[in-house]
Structure formats: structure tokens, C-alpha cells
Amino acid sequence: MNTLKRTIAIVCGGDSSEHDVSLRSAQGLYSFFDKERYNVYIVDVKGVNWRVNLPDGTTAPVDRNDFSFILDGKAVVFDYAYITIHGTPGENGIMQGYFELVHIPYSTSGVLVEAMTFDKFVLNQYLRGYGICVPDSLLIRRGYENQVDEDEIVSRIGMPCFVKPANDGSSFGVSKVKNIDQLAPALRKAMMESDEVMVEQFLDGTELSIGCYKTREKSVVFPATEVVTKNEFFDYDAKYNGQVDEITPARIAPETADRVARITSAIYDILHCNGIIRIDYILTKNEDGTDKINMLEVNTTPGMTATSFIPQQVRAAGLNITDVLTEIVENQFK
Questions:
Q1: 328 and 37 in contact (C-beta within 8 Å)?
Q2: Residue 302: which of 77, 15, 18, 7 has the closest Cα?
Q3: Which of 86, 100, 250, 291 is deepest in the core (most CB within 10 A)?
């Protein structure tokens, strides 16, 4: 019977500043997966050093030729990869390209979608073409910092504004800039994380985060989480060190909640996503007083610790996270 179980790799780690956060997501996923149905292993990726955690507490190297490892003298080839790397190479299409080459199904969207959602500026311009409301922004590339027209930023984007890495999956390198004097230091900080930096309009409103997944049989949008922090913004400490209140379901009007869910489902389809995604929004007010839904970013490898947004939302929806993960895996084999 054991030989009929699929062998799943929870692929974590990566090369970004959120390496250790990814390890925590992997532990969460490991606790969620159905061990009666699957053989589950955690694979820690760091550069070219890929190692699988074995049951006896040791590790074994992964053969990247076929994504396998040796256990008790026998080769074990993985059947499926659940990618929970935050940042490169798991969130930008690189790892997805590898799994395409070795013909291993995986949990995220494809190479193009991952590359596009990883680049916040590109994604915003793309989705704007589909009528999705996104904050205005400018892109600044490394080597061109001296050509930045600060007056243009003030007149077009306004102050305060956000300066953030355009190509990064983490909360590192993000600054809220309140005046021109803070702009240059913020650019240098963001450039430490990415070669491209986005200067983005600040929107004052209610921040939401909402997950979604689809299979051949169903489309599921979870209840939205309202994010309330006393920090300047939803930064690393707010996200990972508990300096935030997360309210699920969000305290928003039912009609707004329905619109957020419909927009989330539409973005999933526009991008042709796979697996669980999480989209962050901020609600502002139109001139007539109605809620305006502004998309901030699409996260294709959302955090999966027990206290992360997605497990919270799964519970709020009355669903079982183990069943959800099983549906996502099995959808690849139909």
C-alpha cells in the first residue's frame, strides 16, 4: 500500500531575505498534509545546495537531474513539489522552470505568471489594462538613481509615498517616505534587495488580504482578512513579529466583500493561476462615498504557518486545510 502513496516535496528556503520565514511555512505545511495519503518530505533549497530532511533527523542531497534522493540505499523520486519559497528562486519562475524541465508537477502558477507577479511594477501595468485599480507608480533601475527627478515624483506620486523593491517577494527594503529628504536613503535601502525599485502612491484606507484557489471542480475565494497595524505600514515586524491585528472576516460591507471576492476570482483567471494565491488590497473611498478597491500585489507563495492569513481564512470558511491541500495536489493528476 505504501508504494501507492505519492511522494511530495515541500520546497522551501531559497535565496532571499525571507529564507527562514519560508522554513516556518514548510513546517506549517508539513503539519497540514495528509500523511496517510502522502509521503511528505521537506526540501531546503539554498543556492545549489538542495537537501531533503530525513525522518531520522539527518539530511540527504537532492539529485537535481531528476529531483530525487537516496533513502535506505534506494532512489526516491518526488511525484509533486509544493513550493513555499518566499522570493527567489521559488516565486519568480526560476524554480518553476526547473520543474518543467524535469516534468514534476508543482503547486504554483507557471513560469510567466510567477515572473510577472514577482515584478510588482510589471504586474500592476498588466492588470491595469484589464481594468483593475492599482496605485500609480514609477520605476527606477539601478544605475539610474542620479537621474531621478524628485520634483516629478512629488507632483505625480505625491508625499507620503512608498519606496519598495520591484523584484522581491519580501517585506525587506520597503520604506514609507514622507518628504523629499527621505527619498534617496529609501532608494538605497530598496536597491539592497532589488535592481529595480518602485516608487508607489500612498493610499490611506483599510488594508485587506484574501486567498483563492481553483480546481477543475470548484472555485474557492476565502473570507478576507482585515490588517490593522500601529506601525507605519504592514512591514516585517507587523507581518512576522505579531505587531498587527488580523481580523477574519474583515469588517467591511457585505457588498464590498462580494466585490473583493469577485475581483480576486477574476485576477486568478486573468493570470491563469494555479494553487493558492493571496491578493492584498487597500480600500479607499470614491467621491460618492462608495468603497474603491485598489490592488496592491499578488502573492503566489503565501505564508503557511498556522497563524498565517491563508490557514486563518480556511478556518473562517469552515474548511479543512488538509482537504484543501489534497484537492490542490490531486488537481494536477486528473
A1: no
A2: 18
A3: 86
